[in-house]
């Protein structure tokens, strides 16, 4: 099942290896004419884990486009074979067995980039890992990681174009123009990454420019892609941050109203502090959107889902511990959180309940 502990832990490992692959492969393709033994061992170990992932995928239930859980082995296998299976299989195929133990030609160098198709699967896998963060934070984290990895891939491609041109006898590429052939790999990479970021953001100071027709075509493409990507990135990040700050804005508005009441009516520091503490506490414990979602569900789903909502804060209490799911589904939407200090009266004898 997608939410089983083993699957969630395994997906966490896979995401880490995805990110490692997205960093390693473009860098090795751009800078290395041959793989050293350490690099080969690390790469083969990662490929072995990805091969296990291919096998496990035939047994992993998934949610289809209608959010229905698919558990049939036949349907799982058919879905995988008709989507990612052959691409995943090619990605783990040992290219070095064809092209030689360590050396590989430009064609086989480019074949290593087939492993990068996993970038398209990153956000999907992120949904099934166990991160104890709000959904908005996970979305923002996935988006930021994807964006900077994409810039890393483009930067390495920018370097690779110049190196392939040099191998084909073209001496007027951007590396030659800026006299970077003898520079350290790190300096070349930083220069390329700087070029990509400034191009994507639309700043493009012009201190790094393409020198050949191929480089100019590449820059035209990344400028178009960069404009769309960077615009989408900024709008998405703003939307996510606004969603994260939505509850904070509500609390601030309530606290501002309380400040106005205090100035006009002089309610006193004691009552003011207690009221302010309750407003903040209620905002942190606010589950009105969750309750609204639950109330809109059919009765059976409402009962089942209510048994999980607030289970640590409610069902751990003695009175609620042994109550039925039906009772909890009825009572939970009617509960409201209050912060009570020591010595305060919660309810006095003879008072009328709300």
User: In DSSP terms, counting alpha (H) and pi (I) runs of 4 or more, how many helices?
Assistant: 18
**Regions with pLDDT < 50 over 5+ consecutive residues?**
none
Mean pLDDT: 76
Strand order of the largest sheet: 1-2
* Cα shape: flat
Descriptive key words:
354 residues, flat, mainly alpha, 2 strands, Helix Hairpins
Mind explaining what this structure looks like?
The structure is a single chain. By secondary structure, the chain is mainly α. The chain has three domains: 1-128, no CATH class; 131-244, Helix Hairpins; 247-334, no CATH class. 66% of the residues lie in helices and 1% in strands. It is built from 18 helices and two strands. It has a two-stranded antiparallel ribbon with strand order 1-2. Helix 1 runs parallel beside helix 8 (135-167) and helix 12 packs antiparallel against helix 13 (269-284). The longest helix is centred in the middle third of the chain and has 33 residues, at 135-167. The radius of gyration is 28 Å and the shape is flat. The two termini are 44 Å apart. The relative contact order is 0.06.
């Amino acid at each position: 099942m997608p939410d089983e502990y083993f699957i969630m832990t395994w997906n966490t490992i896979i995401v880490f290896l995805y990110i490692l692959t997205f960093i390693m492969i473009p860098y090795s393709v751009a800078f290395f004419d041959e793989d050293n033994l350490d690099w080969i061992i690390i790469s083969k170990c990662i490929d072995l884990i990805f091969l296990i992932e291919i096998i496990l995928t035939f047994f992993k239930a998934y949610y289809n486009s209608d959010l229905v859980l698919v558990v049939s082995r036949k349907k799982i296998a058919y879905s995988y074979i008709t989507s990612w299976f052959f691409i995943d299989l090619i990605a783990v195929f040992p290219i070095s067995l064809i092209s030689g133990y360590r050396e590989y030609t430009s064609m086989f160098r480019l074949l290593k980039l087939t492993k990068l198709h996993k970038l398209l699967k990153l956000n999907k896998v992120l949904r099934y890992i166990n991160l104890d963060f709000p959904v908005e934070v996970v979305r923002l984290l996935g988006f930021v990681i994807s964006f900077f990895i994409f810039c890393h891939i483009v930067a390495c491609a920018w370097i690779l174009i110049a190196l392939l041109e040099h191998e084909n006898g073209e001496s007027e590429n951007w590396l030659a123009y800026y006299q970077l052939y003898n520079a350290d790999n790190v300096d070349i990479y930083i220069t390329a990454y700087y070029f990509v970021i400034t191009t994507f953001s639309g700043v493009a100071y012009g201190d790094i420019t393409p020198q050949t027709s191929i480089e100019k075509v590449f820059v035209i493409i990344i400028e178009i892609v960069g404009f769309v990507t960077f615009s989408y990135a900024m709008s998405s990040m703003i939307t996510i941050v606004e969603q994260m700050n939505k509850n904070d804005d509500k609390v601030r508005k309530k606290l501002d109203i309380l400040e106005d009441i205090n100035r006009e009516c002089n309610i006193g520091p004691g009552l003011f502090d207690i009221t302010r503490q309750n407003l903040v506490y209620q905002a942190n414990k606010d589950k009105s959107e969750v309750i609204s979602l639950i109330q809109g569900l059919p009765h059976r789903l409402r009962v089942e889902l209510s048994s999980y909502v607030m289970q640590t804060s409610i069902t751990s209490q003695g009175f609620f511990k042994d109550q039925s799911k039906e009772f909890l589904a009825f009572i939970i939407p009617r509960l409201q959180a209050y912060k009570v200090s020591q010595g305060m009266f919660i309810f006095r004898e003879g008072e009328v309940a709300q």
